[in-house]
Amino acid sequence: MGFHISTRWGGDEANASVERLREVLAQLDAEDNEHPCVSLTHESEWSLGAYPNGLLVWENVEEGEPRHLNNVSRERMLTLWLKLAAGRVDEVDAEPWLPGYA
């Protein structure tokens, strides 16, 4: 199964390593209101978008209906990214998501 990440400043990389995922999440430490998030998208079109304030958005880019979690630590973001990258969509979907983007 494949996935790709979108970096803070528009890069797109396929099947990145765990260390690279950590680096991309660390990009959230930079001040940049114009480029607010990074994301990981699985080939199933499920995506997790991460924001500097701890917001994590879960959505299927084909179907809509976004959901979110607040105050998510970077380690928790990484854990969920790794589950999604491995195709464990049901496990990610089982989190206590709230409706909408925030």
Description:
With 102 residues, the protein is α+β, with helices and mostly antiparallel strands. The protein has one domain (3-99). 25% of the residues lie in helices and 29% in strands. The protein has a seven-stranded antiparallel sheet with strand order 2-1-3-4-5-6-7, covered by helices on one side. Strand 4 and strand 5 form a beta hairpin. Helix 1 packs across helix 2. The longest helix has 12 residues, at 74-85. The relative contact order is 0.19.
Q: In brief, what are we looking at here?
A:
With 102 residues, the chain is an alpha+beta fold. It has three helices and seven strands. It is globular.
Instruction: Report the radius of gyration as a whole number of Å.
Output: 12 Å
Spatial strand arrangement across the major sheet: 2-1-3-4-5-6-7
Strand count: 7
**Main sheet record:** 7 strands, antiparallel
Q: What proportion of the residues form beta strands (DSSP E)? A: 25-35%
- Determine the fraction of residues in helical runs and give it as a percent range: 25-40%
* Number of helical stretches of at least 4 residues: 3
Query: What's the number of structural domains?
Result: 1
Report the order of strands and helices.
EEHEEEEHHE
Q: Shape from CA axes? A: globular
What structural class results from the helix and strand content?
Answer: alpha+beta
Oligomeric assembly = single chain
Mean pLDDT: 95
What are the low-pLDDT stretches, counting only 5+ consecutive residues below 50? none
Question: Termini, distance in Å?
Answer: 29 Å
